[in-house]
């Protein structure tokens, strides 16, 4: 075989993280190779046929503004689109799309074909290191591919082990070979790894379901795309159907609990508490008389149906028998059973906030290999790893998102500062600045980075910059324009709101919880034509209204953010010797030594660290800095 | 916002130094002294300090230091005031009422370092001091925070946490509509917890007298010498606040210090049967004062069943010895044994001080409890008006983080832990 040319970047794995990483790098001009064990599986969505959802939808929007592809691709194969949580506050509104999984795969592969990304079918088994720096990867057949940087996105493939009841199958996903070698290679380089578990429910045959029993759920009437780059969005509205388990199902599960790999002790690693198997739900929450099962089509007119809510590692025959107790599923047949899978991951505290290893220069890890779960979490990491490996190769400053910038910032910060013992999934409550991290303002939060790092084409940047400027203009208008009692009191009375006695700014009316811009006559507000003609006018008005409604809280949070900002810039050298600080408590010292925070800000967010530890650290940093300078 | 702390150890007499540091230090200083002059670097001047009601509280000497030539590198004000802990606490409190935060242990030093102001050779010594202070602070905190309060606060935190977890489940995991009773249940829990926090906040006042001062009332029949004694006590003790005038025959009161305890001393109208409607009002007021008083100086013979917080005083000893039983004999006119009466008052207050089981004793603790209370009130407002659950969650998290500073830290994971253990999550 003829020797490979040197690449700037080799991405290992073609899941959501790998696709984002490699396309981001290509976009930034890197000569990039994507190595996947099976070329045809690039872009495969291995679990549920949906993208977005609570907290995840916000992340998809962020990825989109930073030039990522997940939302853009999903928009091209949407089966149903819906904003979740609409009855709750605006900061927790989250978009989600049911997607056609087959189409998604082909959209991804088609896009790659038209890009300069090279794809190679093969298995990377180790990395080549010189002077603690990446210089290549080795394939199973011992060929070496020289490269300057590597992004590992191996998903659940590293020593993957599938459990279906007693049965154990070595695999990365159902029907796909697992990957061996990388774990052992990284361990020999000093990395520490752990094992996690996740699961997926059975897939059933569409024509074996009595659909009349299920309750149909549709998407939004006026659906919005996930990506700002999607020009036309006219998705179908294919319904999902919900069915319910019953007492018969539950008692059958409890009787057969011993057949579950999780309960028999075959699965030793921890699974996610937020995505419990059906046996977990029945066992731990025995009071619930019934659980919802959501039957989702995997593609358009799909014969294959995903049984959301029935993740399990019960043996195949028990799974089937249990499912058949559900009304409407009496005659159900499997395409394949549900299963649990155990896989290796690496404790992400071994990474910097760029997702680069603290030890090996040029080695980046992203996705489930870092102990996360979920397409969106993977995509977010892949994108950052792709951007930052590019910055590494070009010897430029990396892209680091703060917790106050994005869920993506929260994600990375959480990952590197605490060692997860269950797959990490994003929740809105993980973000202390949740009120600021809305799906509707991802562009306001992140566009500057896209400009600075050149992540979007000029046209998109200009469009979004204009949208942001117009939003600000409307906010100004609302804050400046007064409204007289006689102009609004009639409306207020009709709404059951208290009337106003003298002229006030429209913004103070908007701050009332149940008063909205639409309640003000257009001629009073008088939004200039340049703004009303913006294609995003609905979003602009909505966002301006939101900014005003939340302003009290946003200002308070901004004060907090400003107060701690200085600590994010205080760098702690990687080789900082914590042993010289005698006044640190032993517990804090051990934590610092283990996690090796990069900044004072990070140090303060480690569990159990006290403010006084931070003060002491600051004092010593200053000192060692000066000592170095004197030398 | 600037931070403020007393940089001389509490309890030592003489002069104490309270320091403010931060960009807006001068703004706060202008407010507490009601001055508008431009601060001049390193020039000391005499000022009066006003409390929020606008009353003069104390006279001080203050020096402004303009950034960057200051200890911390920020704008600073050094206030020299009387070394009495009560006065110091009150000045800190007034500063906080204008938005200052109380400095964490080592915060001045930390800020100085951040702004590159400290000599590097001092680093080790300084960090030892920070460590020692925080250890001392922790010890003091535990000692000061009565076991009863600490337990109470932990319970309160657990209640708020469960409420927050309920709300987070609905916001964060459940894609369905809200649970039917969520708002109602949360509201009733918030109200319950609010009462408990209020109780704790009050324990500060009732137990330490540091903020509002103790209420001491002089009572007795007309002509017993109440007003004479009042004037005597006010005259021989340093008055902190000017007289608050009442109407004729109303209660006359003044703030004085006895043994470092701020005391609100009240002279009352004599209590007797009267037909005069104006005097009647005065007598009614006197009776009310007696009910809320911490200590009553009663110029009467000790009854068979003496009241706990009463000191029975025989006056006019210069005219002849008492017949009957009294706690103490004095002469209001010539001052004989009034000092002895003072001692009795301060020890009577000390007794009632340790009597309450739940108490917070430092200003910092009170500050945090009050902030927690305020956040709870905001949460209650949202729950009962606009139903914005995300804002309720925000306020409840705030409440917890204030209480965390009194006990131990709650993390976001703690919230999720409760969610996962209470709800069947995932479809
Ligand atoms: N000899 C003597 N006379 C006193 C003493 N205290 C008060 N008096 C007199 O008793 C009278 C009534 O005093 P006052 O303070 O007005 O009594 P009140 O009605 O209880 O407020 C006045 O003439 C005082 O001078 C004392 O200790 N010795
Ligand atoms: Mg009198």
Walk me through what this model shows.
- The complex is a heterodimer of chains A (631) and B (427).
- Chain A is an alpha+beta fold and 631 residues long.
- Helix content of chain A is 37%, strand content 17%.
- In chain A, strands 1, 2, 6, 7, 8, 9 and 20 form a seven-stranded mixed β-sheet that branches. A six-stranded antiparallel β-sheet of chain A has the order 14-15-16-17-13-18, with no helix packed on it.
- Chain A is globular.
- Chain A starts with 6 loop residues before the first strand and ends with a helix.
- Chain B folds into three domains: 3-114, Gyrase A, domain 2 (2-Layer Sandwich), CATH 3.30.1360.120; 148-208 and 359-420, Up-down Bundle (Four Helix Bundle (Hemerythrin (Met), subunit A)); 212-349, Rossmann fold.
- Chain B has twelve helices and 13 strands.
- Chain B has helices at 25-33, 85-97, 107-114, 123-144, 147-173, 182-208, 226-236, 277-292, 338-355, 363-384, 389-404, 412-422, and strands at 3-6, 15-21, 44-50, 56-65, 76-82, 101-102, 214-219, 239-244, 252-258, 261-267, 295-298, 310-314, 328-329.
- In chain B, the strands form two sheets. Chain B has a seven-stranded mixed β-sheet, with helices on both faces. In chain B, strands 3-4-5-2-1-6 form a six-stranded mixed β-sheet, with helices on one face.
- In chain B, helix 5 (147-173) packs antiparallel against helix 6.
- The two termini of chain B are 46 Å apart.
- Residues 136-144, 206-212, 238-249 and 351-358 of chain B have low confidence and may be disordered.
- The interface between A and B is large, with 56 and 51 residues.
- Magnesium ion (MG) binds at residues 226-227 of chain B.
Give me the Rg of chain A, rounded. 26 Å
**Domain module tally of chain B:** 3
Mean residue pLDDT of chain A = 92
End-to-end Cα distance of chain A, whole Å, is: 52 Å
CATH domain topology of the largest domain in chain A: FAD/NAD(P)-binding domain
CATH superfamily of the largest domain in chain A: FAD/NAD(P)-binding domain
Regions with little confidence, pLDDT below 50 for 5+ residues of chain B? 136-144, 206-212, 238-249, 351-358
Looking at the chains present, what oligomeric state does this protein adopt? Answer: heterodimer
Strand content of chain A: 15-25%
In CATH, the architecture of the largest domain in chain A is 3-Layer(bba) Sandwich
Q: Quote the beta fraction of chain B.
A: 15-25%
Identify the overall geometry of chain B. globular
Greatest interface (CB-CB under 8 A), with counts per chain:
A-B, 56 and 51 residues
Number of helices of chain B: 12
> How large is the radius of gyration of chain B?
26 Å
């Amino acid at each position: 075989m003829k020797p490979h040319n040197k690449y700037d970047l080799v991405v290992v794995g073609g899941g959501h993280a790998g696709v984002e990483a490699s396309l981001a790098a290509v976009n930034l001009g890197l000569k990039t190779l994507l190595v996947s064990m099976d070329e045809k599986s690039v872009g495969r969505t291995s679990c549920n046929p949906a993208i977005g959802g609570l907290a995840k939808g916000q992340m998809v929007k962020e990825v989109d503004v930073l030039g990522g592809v997940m939302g853009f691709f999903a928009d091209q194969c949407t089966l149903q689109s819906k904003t979740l949580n609409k009855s709750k506050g605006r900061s927790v509104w989250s978009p989600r799309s049911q997607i056609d999984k087959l189409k998604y795969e082909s959209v991804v592969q088609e896009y790659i074909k038209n890009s300069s990304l090279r794809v190679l079918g093969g298995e990377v088994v180790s990395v080549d290191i010189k002077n603690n720096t990446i210089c290549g990867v080795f394939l199973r057949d011992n060929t070496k591919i020289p490269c300057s940087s590597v992004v590992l996105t191996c998903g659940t493939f590293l020593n993957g082990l599938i459990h279906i009841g007693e049965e154990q199958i070595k695999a990365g996903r159902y029907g796909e070979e697992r990957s061996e070698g990388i774990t052992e290679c990284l361990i020999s380089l000093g990395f520490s790894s752990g094992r996690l578990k996740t699961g997926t429910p059975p897939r059933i045959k569409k024509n074996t379901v009595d659909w009349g029993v299920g309750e149909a759920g549709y998407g939004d009437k006026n659906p919005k795309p996930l990506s700002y780059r999607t020009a036309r969005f006219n998705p179908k509205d294919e319904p999902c159907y919900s069915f319910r388990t019953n007492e018969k199902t539950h008692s059958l599960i409890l009787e057969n609990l011993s057949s579950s790999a999780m309960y028999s002790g075959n699965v030793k690693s921890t699974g996610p508490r937020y995505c419990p198997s059906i046996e977990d739900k029945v066992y731990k929450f025995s009071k619930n008389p019934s659980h919802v099962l959501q039957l989702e089509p995997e593609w358009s007119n799909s014969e294959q149906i995903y049984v959301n809510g029935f993740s399990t590692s019960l043996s195949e025959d028990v799974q089937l028998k249990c499912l058949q107790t559900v009304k409407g599923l009496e005659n159900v047949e499997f395409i394949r059973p549900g299963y649990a899978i155990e896989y290796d991951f690496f404790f992400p505290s071994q990474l910097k906030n760029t997702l680069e290893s603290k030890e090996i220069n040029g080695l980046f890890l992203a996705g489930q290999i870092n102990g996360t779960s979920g397409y969106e979490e993977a995509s977010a990491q892949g994108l950052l790893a792709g951007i930052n490996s590019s910055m590494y190769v070009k010897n430029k400053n990396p892209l680091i998102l703060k917790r106050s910038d994005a869920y993506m910032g929260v994600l990375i910060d959480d990952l590197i500062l605490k060692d997860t013992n269950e797959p990490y999934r994003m929740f809105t409550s993980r973000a202390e600045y949740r009120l600021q991290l809305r799906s509707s303002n991802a562009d306001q939060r992140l566009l500057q980075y896209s400009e600075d790092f050149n992540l979007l084409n000029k046209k998109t940047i200009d469009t979004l910059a204009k949208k942001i400027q117009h939003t600000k203009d409307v906010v100004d208008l609302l804050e400046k324009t007064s409204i007289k009692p006689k102009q609004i009191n009639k409306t207020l009375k009709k709404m059951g709101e208290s009337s106003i006695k003298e002229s006030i700014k429209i913004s103070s009316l908007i701050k009332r919880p149940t008063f909205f811009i639409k309640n003000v006559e257009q001629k009073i507000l008088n939004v200039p034509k340049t703004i009303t003609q913006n294609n995003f006018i609905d979003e602009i008005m909505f966002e301006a209204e939101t900014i005003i409604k939340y302003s009290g809280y946003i200002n308070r949070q901004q004060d907090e953010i400003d107060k701690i900002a200085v600590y994010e810039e205080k760098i702690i050298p990687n080789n900082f010797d914590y042993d010289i600080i005698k006044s640190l408590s032993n517990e804090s010292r051990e934590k610092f030594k283990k996690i090796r925070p990069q900044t004072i800000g990070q140090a303060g967010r480690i569990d159990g660290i006290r403010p006084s530890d931070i003060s002491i650290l600051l004092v010593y940093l200053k000192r060692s800095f000066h000592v170095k300078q004197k030398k | 916002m600037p931070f403020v702390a007393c940089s001389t150890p509490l309890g030592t007499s003489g002069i104490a130094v309270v320091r403010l540091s931060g960009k807006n230090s001068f703004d706060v200083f202008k407010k507490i002294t009601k001055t508008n002059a431009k601060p001049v670097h390193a020039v000391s001047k005499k000022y009066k300090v006003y409390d929020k009601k606008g009353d003069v509280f104390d006279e001080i000497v203050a020096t402004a230091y303009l950034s960057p030539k200051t200890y911390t590198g920020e704008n600073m004000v050094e206030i020299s005031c009387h070394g009495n802990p009560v006065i110091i606490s009150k000045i800190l409190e007034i500063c906080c009422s204008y938005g200052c935060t109380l400095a964490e242990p080592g915060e001045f030093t930390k800020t100085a370092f951040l702004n590159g102001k400290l000599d590097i050779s001092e680093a080790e010594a300084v960090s030892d001091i920070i460590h020692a202070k925080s250890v001392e602070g922790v010890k003091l905190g535990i000692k000061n925070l009565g076991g009863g309060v600490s337990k109470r606060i932990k319970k309160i935190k657990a209640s708020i946490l469960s409420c927050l977890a309920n709300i987070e489940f609905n916001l964060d995991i459940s894609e369905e509509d809200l649970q039917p009773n969520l708002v109602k249940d949360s509201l009733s829990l918030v109200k319950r917890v609010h009462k408990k926090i209020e109780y704790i906040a009050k324990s500060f006042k009732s137990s330490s007298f540091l903020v509002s001062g103790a209420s001491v009332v002089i009572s007795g029949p007309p002509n017993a010498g109440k007003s004479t004694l009042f004037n005597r006590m006010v005259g021989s003790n340093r008055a902190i606040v000017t007289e608050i005038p009442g109407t004729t025959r109303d209660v006359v009161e003044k703030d004085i210090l006895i043994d470092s305890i701020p005391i609100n001393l009240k002279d009352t109208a004599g209590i007797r049967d009267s037909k005069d409607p104006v005097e009647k009002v005065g007598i009614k007021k006197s009776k009310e004062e007696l009910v809320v008083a911490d200590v009553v100086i009663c110029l009467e013979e000790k009854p068979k069943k003496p009241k706990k917080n009463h000191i029975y005083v025989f006056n006019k000893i210069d005219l002849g010895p008492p017949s009957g039983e009294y706690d103490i004999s004095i002469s209001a006119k010539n001052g004989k044994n009034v000092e002895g009466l003072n001692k009795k008052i301060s020890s009577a207050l000390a007794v009632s001080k340790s009597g309450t089981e739940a108490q917070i004793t430092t200003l910092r603790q009170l500050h945090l409890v009050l902030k927690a209370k305020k956040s709870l009130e905001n949460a209650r407002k949202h729950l009962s008006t606009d139903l914005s659950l995300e804002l309720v969650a925000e306020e409840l998290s705030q409440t917890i983080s204030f209480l965390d500073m009194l006990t131990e830290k709650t993390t976001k994971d703690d919230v999720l832990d409760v969610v996962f253990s209470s709800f069947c999550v995932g479809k």
